[in-house]
Specification:
Length: 317
């Protein structure tokens, strides 16, 4: 495991408990989405990991080594792009930025230029190497900021709202870049309020609420848990007879929408084959299936749990 966070807690002088007993893992070659409402504790957690804040309690391990007073092993292998921070100099070109940020990482000019050119070529921005940053599009600026963070070829990349303010094409480019980096073994921890983006890109999900981690696990397992029930909307060419409806009710729970349209809820996926066999005898006008996504998952965990983490009555996954 590249990074391990154990039992982190942090309070501020005004008495605010920013995070409490936070523990999670960040594996190499995976994209981890750190999700939560504003003020949930994401920024505080990132600042502690980056040694910008000291925790009241807790430990951080990097490559299985406990970081005590010296975070150098972690920081030397970490690239960071923070939202609303100076991640590059806008009056300089990408190459000039690479030379500067490379020097901050102990790289000489030649190595920084070489690494920078490789990054620009990989991300299709080689033609912009001598264009000052403020003349580039918002999407290109974000990609250059990521390149600056990658200039020393770190093992760990931290991104705060990487798609904020980007158009659809730029978001797709950022997605492609991050997936490429993960496939090359880079561990990526990102925060985002764009849940559709997180669902497309993340391998792991961390969900924080009022300083407490309320979900940690793989995205696939998370979505699979929330899709044990199958939702199918069927529109028949004519209304079902009472006998036909009775047969259908023996297979799935029925929610009537109108005389010919029903939403079917399958609580047991084994009944899917029975349902499909039943439907073959009818002329269907439409058939749609719907899976719960990350929006529903976050809504459940944020609104469907008590402060102690227990599930509110009447709400189930």
């Amino acid at each position: 495991m590249l990074l391990k966070v154990r039992n982190l807690s942090k309070s501020f002088q005004n008495g605010t408990r920013a995070i409490e007993d936070l523990s999670f893992d960040i594996p190499a070659g995976k994209i981890t989405a750190f999700l939560g409402f504003n003020g949930a504790g994401k920024t505080t957690s990132l600042k502690i990991i980056l040694n910008l804040l000291l925790p009241d309690e807790g430990k951080i391990y990097f490559e299985n080594k406990l970081l005590k007073n010296d975070f150098t092993p972690l920081l030397k292998q970490t690239g960071v792009v923070l939202e609303s921070a100076r991640n590059m100099f806008y009056a300089l070109t990408p190459m000039e930025n690479f030379i500067y940020w490379g020097a901050q990482r102990g790289l000489n000019k030649k190595v920084a230029q070489k690494n920078g050119l490789e990054l620009l070529e990989k991300f299709d921005l080689l033609s912009k190497k001598d264009t000052v940053i403020f003349e580039l599009s918002r999407g290109m600026q974000q990609i250059i900021a990521i390149c600056c963070a990658l200039i020393s070829k770190p093992k760990f990349l931290v991104l705060d709202e990487p798609t904020l303010g980007l158009d659809i094409e730029a978001v797709e480019t950022v997605e492609r870049i991050l997936k490429t980096l993960a496939s090359e073994g880079v561990a990526i921890l990102l925060t985002t309020h764009e849940l559709a983006f997180a669902q497309r890109i993340a391998d792991q999900i961390l969900l924080i609420k009022k300083g407490r981690l309320i979900y940690s696990g793989s995205k696939a397992d998370c979505l699979d848990k929330f899709n044990q029930e199958k939702f199918i909307t069927v529109q028949f060419s004519q209304a079902l007879s009472n006998n036909q409806r009775a047969v259908l009710e023996s297979i799935a729970k029925i929610i009537s929408i109108n005389n010919t349209t029903y939403q079917l809820v399958l609580s047991n996926r084994k009944n899917l084959s029975h349902l499909l066999k039943f439907l073959t005898q009818f002329k269907l006008m439409d058939l749609k299936t719907k899976n719960k996504g990350l929006n529903e998952v976050v809504d459940f965990y944020m609104k469907g749990k008590n402060e102690d983490g227990s599930i509110k009555s009447g709400i189930s996954a």
